[in-house]
Design goal:
By secondary structure, the chain is mainly β. It has one domain: TolB, C-terminal domain (Neuraminidase, 6 Propeller). The chain is about 0% helix and about 55% strand. The protein is built from one helix and 24 strands. The longest helix is centred in the C-terminal third of the chain and has 6 residues. The protein is globular. One of its GO terms (biological process) is L-ascorbic acid biosynthetic process. Pfam families: SGL. GO terms for molecular function: calcium ion binding; gluconolactonase activity.
Length: about 290
Amino acid sequence: MFELIDTIDVENTLGEGVTWDTETQTVWWTDIEQKKLFAYQVTDRNLTTYNTPHRLCAFALTKDSGVLLAAFDCGIGLHNLASGKTDWLFKFPGDATVRFNDGRTDAKGRFWVGTLNEDGDKTASSGLYRVDTNMQVTKVASDVGICNGLAWNNDATRFYMADSSRQIIYQYVFDNDSGDISSRSTFKQLDASTAPDGAIMGNDDHLYSALWGGSCVARFAPNGDEERFDVPVEQPTCVAFGGEDNDLLFVTSARYALSDEAIANAPKSGSLFIYRTGFNGTQSPRFAGETRHD
């Protein structure tokens, strides 16, 4: 089953980072290019929109409902939603051409976030960072072009990361205690027509990946076998499981760089889609560090 049950028409330029909050039954996501953050309460169908001071590329919910661990284009910080202020943990140099991109928290509550290069080499010039619960920010991997699709299997022994520029999903050996990754190998090589984007892990260790340019969400078995579920847009961007029974799949999408003709052919581009599935999945835990934000 893959049944579309709701569409939130927000016309995102680049919807991303979709995350489910079980406590409030709310789905959160960002429009990177429009500098907006969205929160949709599923039960009462209430949509709240926040303006962000920079392009919000990825984020984690925290123990404080009013504070996000935010990966903006220019750096990482604790962002207070009410005041709009950010307590910075890490910033790129002012002349940097990289920005943060996709991010997720692991089972220990550490936040992982990758980068992409907006000017220059798109094949090997970016990296992967980890924010530990003591607020230390560490670069843990390089040799990646557009870092996307971060996920872990259910026993936290495998870490998955996509490189959209190479159409590859990699897998690593993961040490859940230390947060170390090692022994990178190719999990799935896609063809040049699609790029793996945001991802989430199912409870059955199947990896769900939004395929940019592919008009679908792919479901990958642990051995790499796949099935695909069509979505009514060319550029799905990220996925998350949630809902009262944990069987809803939320899918963000983008209008980024689409022609007028392409948008006319797929007018729901940029919407958030909610599908009822026959599957269940994991959620991103809250960031476990202290939110020392005034």
